[in-house]
Write a structure and sequence with these properties.
By secondary structure, this protein is an alpha/beta fold. It is built from ten helices and 15 strands. It has a domain of 156 residues: RecF/RecN/SMC, N-terminal domain (Glutathione S-transferase Yfyf (Class Pi), Chain A, domain 2, Up-down Bundle), CATH 1.20.1050.90. A hairpin with a 2-residue loop joins strand 1 and strand 2. It is globular and about 65 Å long.
Amino acid sequence: MLDLEAKAIRHAPARPALRRLKLSDFRSYSALDLEVEAQLVVLCGENGAGKTNILESLSLLTPGRGLRRADMEDFARDTGSGGFAISAEIDGPTGPVQLGTGVEPAAEGGSSQRKYRIDRAPVSSIRGFADHVRMVWQTPGMDGLFAGPAGDRRRFLDRLVLAVDAEHGSRVNALERALRNRNRLLEDGIRKGAWLEASEKEIAEIAVAVAAARTETVARLGALLSRTDEADASPFPWAEVALDGAVEQLAAERPALEAEDAYREILRDNRGRDAAAGRTLIGPQSCDLLVRHGPKNMEAAKASTGEQKALLIGLILAHAQLVTAMSGICPIILLDEVAAHFDPRRRQALFARLRALGAQVWVTGADPNLFQDVSGPDTEFLTVTPGQVSRG
């Protein structure tokens, strides 16, 4: 396993910071040109003013569907042209860089395709952006993560992996397509033959790769958390993390080829049951992320609402450290309405931890009084009103 502390000593991490953001026909913004210099950017405004839209635009500079997992057509302004554009000027690991993404208005009867540019030159995918910027985030929608359905935790897990492995999203999507193909074959009454064998071979190869990436990330995160155990009185308790999944267990215990063969056998033995269920029952698509409250040694789902939120923030802060150690790039951190439900002690502790990470941080809040303790030369306060952002 990678020695995270040793790597951090050998290579000082890059600390990217966004310096200019331009939006066109994105969500509630017909046009926005915003320049910032601070490490901590505080966006204040009434609910519905457009604070989260700004964070969402930043999150789209990384692989995936952004912090709200929205469909592409949802990003375009309702009364706009049908397309949208995001441009970000970033002080990155190799110097200033301009990253751009968006969709041009579709021709009548045509479809829109998202495009990407680095320093205004077209690139084929967003994966190249990962050389310049990484991001992690928290949203209010995550508050029920530990007590909610396994699918929510699985998507959270894949977001953790994607922040350190830009190829992970493509593998997860490929696995979903392969599973749908097998489900169709089973639905058509096929129980054996070359097509089904080929389908299960493809599934096994992709599934083990997905499971291995999840297993490695969780193992590294767990190792990091185990070295940062804090006293029971810590505002952000440490967590124990583990995976519950048959293929993830295979990936952890066996070489890749052996794990693939074992999973192919599982698929073959369960064709009848999967056909009756209308889906593949065993595989990475049913994995769960298990989280325990470390100091109290109990399931996170059984902790109080406040404890769960604090535990989640502790996980996200640890993940930011992991991204820094594994990629050499300190991620920009996006925190949506993070301070509203914390008491003053936890708010102060949170911003102290954020400053210690050295990352650029963007936070939102409806009440500017929640951020009185964080004012300073490295903090910039912005007021958000519908379609506009002003200073002060």
